[in-house]
Amino acid sequence: MSKTAESVWNNCLAFIEDNITSQAYKTWFEPIKAAKLTDNALSIQVPSKFFYEWLEEHYVKILKVALTKELGTNAKLVYIIRMENTYGNKQPFTEKIPSANRSNLQSQDVDVPLKNKSPELKNPFVIPGIRNVKIESQLNPNYNFESFLEGESNRLARSAGLAVANKPGGTSFNPLLIFGGVGLGKTHLGHAIGVDIKDKYPEKTVLYISAEKFTQQYIESVKKNNRNDFIHFYQIIDVLIVDDIQLLSGKAGTQDVFFHIFNHLHQNGKQVILTSDKAPVDMIDIEQRLLSRFKWGLSAELNHPDYDTRVAIIKNKLYRDGVEMPDDIVEFLANNIKTNIRELEGAIISLIAHSSFNKKEITIELARKIVDNYVKHTKREVSIDYIQKVVSDYFQMDVDTLQSKTRKRHIVQARQLAMFFAKKFTKASLASIGSQIGQRDHATVLHACKTVDNLSSTDKQFRKYVEDLSKKLTL
Ligand code: ADP
Ligand code: MG
């Protein structure tokens, strides 16, 4: 009985199906069609270049084993990448097969011969007619550069943002990672870059998305079995702005798919802009390969605004709202709300609201009352010293013992718990936590956090420690 492409491929599929999860099989193997069999080379047709890259990275070994079983040690695998006319259009393939592509893993025995390199394939994602597909950029036009006031605290990030907006994908700031604490303007600056690019290059496809929404979309696509559409969608974007990427931490599947989308965009000269509330070195549970990508471009920090910048931001807001406020009140606000621009704006808004509802003048007394409310309502951050004290008390040791260099198990555990809670309940960086808990380095703290995570899921007694301490610390 002579072999056909179908029979060979079906045997391979049977073998692969037994060896991977059914979800993976459905996603990555069911859409493949056997195309051609010549001598010892099997050609398979895959839906996109991305698909091919994914197979090469994740499944090349199993493909090799399966194919070798069928065709012997000289087996070769040829990918044929199907071209699509329009994004998301599931029309059956009707065009000529544009080309096969050479595996980028030439050292592998599954050798993929190089056939023609049609110009189309160089960038299979510039799909004819794609210009008709409108992608809503999700940008907020009010978050622009004009309303983003410059100060010492944001100069680097702001000018890097402007440089990126002038030449998206054409600077070494790719990705541009903007990081900084809550309410310091990360989201605003991310939008501003997008808005400016849309202004200068209306034909570019710009997309702003929060990492949270990205994650939801991805999960949804896995459920609905249209993950390919999800991926294709992200691959046709020229400028991708992902907000709060620290939210990807611990989400391996989402990180994996983002890694591939990122690589694709980057390789094709597309611009990626990311924001995070932590510096890359302080991100926990983000895969190393993704972290290293984040560091390829520029990481620019947004710091707490200095006094002059705070005054400028308040005045600008008042001006835009058409409200007048005496200088001493502006100064009072700038002096009392220092670390969060969102809170500063919130205080101004309640001040204006109070005075207009109650038909009162804006006075310093009113300002004081509102600021008091604001500052009281904002949660007080527990200090690292306090955490060390609570943990030491709980294990009936003193803080010096907790910080000591001993390797005694219960002391090591107490120290690791203190580090874990310091990471959880304060905004301090890993390095700063380490230096305050017995002069350790950031890697030790990171290790401690992971150990506590692991132990609390495997060790019942340990989990109780974590729960008890959590309660004590959040009282
Ligand atoms: P983050 O994303 O870092 O938490 P946002 O971008 O949401 O912070 O900023 C919080 C608020 O502060 C927004 O209303 C934003 O417009 C304002 N803001 C932040 N930085 C500036 C700035 N440099 N100039 C003017 N407004 C700012
Ligand atoms: Mg934000």
List unreliable stretches of 5+ residues.
Answer: 84-132
What is the mean predicted local confidence, pLDDT? 84
Q: What form results from the Cα inertia axes?
A: flat
Element order: H for helix, E for strand? HHEEHHEEHHEHEHHEHEHEHHHHHHHHHH
Topology record:
Blueprint: H1 5-19, H2 22-28, E1 33-38, E2 41-46, H3 49-58, H4 60-71, E3 76-81, E4 100-101, H5 119-122, H6 155-166, E5 176-180, H7 186-200, E6 206-210, H8 211-223, H9 227-235, E7 239-243, H10 252-267, E8 271-276, H11 288-294, E9 298-302, H12 307-321, H13 327-336, H14 341-357, H15 364-377, H16 384-394, H17 399-403, H18 409-425, H19 430-436, H20 442-458, H21 460-474
Parallel strand pairs: 2-3, 5-8, 5-9, 6-7, 7-8
Antiparallel strand pairs: 1-2, 3-4
Helix pairs in contact: 1-4, 6-7, 8-9, 12-13, 12-14, 13-15, 14-15, 16-18, 18-20, 19-20, 20-21
Residues 186-187, 243 line the site of magnesium ion (MG).
Subunit structure: Oligomerizes as a right-handed, spiral filament on DNA at oriC.
GO molecular function: ATP binding; DNA replication origin binding; lipid binding
InterPro entries: AAA+_ATPase, Chromosome_initiator_DnaA, Chromosome_initiator_DnaA-like, Chromosome_initiator_DnaA_CS, DnaA_C, DnaA_dom, DnaA_N_dom, DnaA_N_sf
